[in-house]
């Protein structure tokens, strides 16, 4: 019984620490951009490649990251798992 309890506790802890968020970005500009994030206390810089549509993954126990800097101005202060963004002429919009 004790073993089953600890096995369940381990699985819950493992699931809580292994989360990641993914955003989809369609960059129609011929310029590469950088976005600085703060995810669960850790800093991360995401490089959004020019003229591509790609998914970008960030590790965070909360499935969201604060936008703290970079080349772009997003219409929100947080990036959350599942969001889709479009970049045209240096402007960011959701789609």
Account of the protein in words:
With 95 residues, the chain is an alpha+beta fold. It has one domain. 17% of the residues lie in helices and 52% in strands. It contains 1 helix and 8 strands, in the order H-E-E-E-E-E-E-E-E. The protein has one helix at residues 2-17, and strands spanning 20-27, 33-39, 42-48, 52-59, 64-70, 78-80, 84-88, 91-94. Strands 4-1-7-8 form a 4-stranded mixed β-sheet, with no helix packed on it. Strands 3-2-5-6 form a 4-stranded antiparallel β-sheet, with no helix packed on it. The radius of gyration is 17 Å and the shape is globular. The mean pLDDT is 86.
Please give the oligomerization state of what you see: single chain
- Helix-strand sequence: HEEEEEEEE
- First-to-last CA distance: 50 Å
Spatial strand sequence of the major β-sheet: 4-1-7-8
Instruction: Label the structural class.
Output: alpha+beta
Number of domains: 1
The DSSP helix count reads 1
Strand content: over 45%
- Counted beta strands: 8
As a whole number of angstroms, the C-alpha radius of gyration is: 17 Å
Mean pLDDT: 86
Helix content: 10-25%
Shape: globular
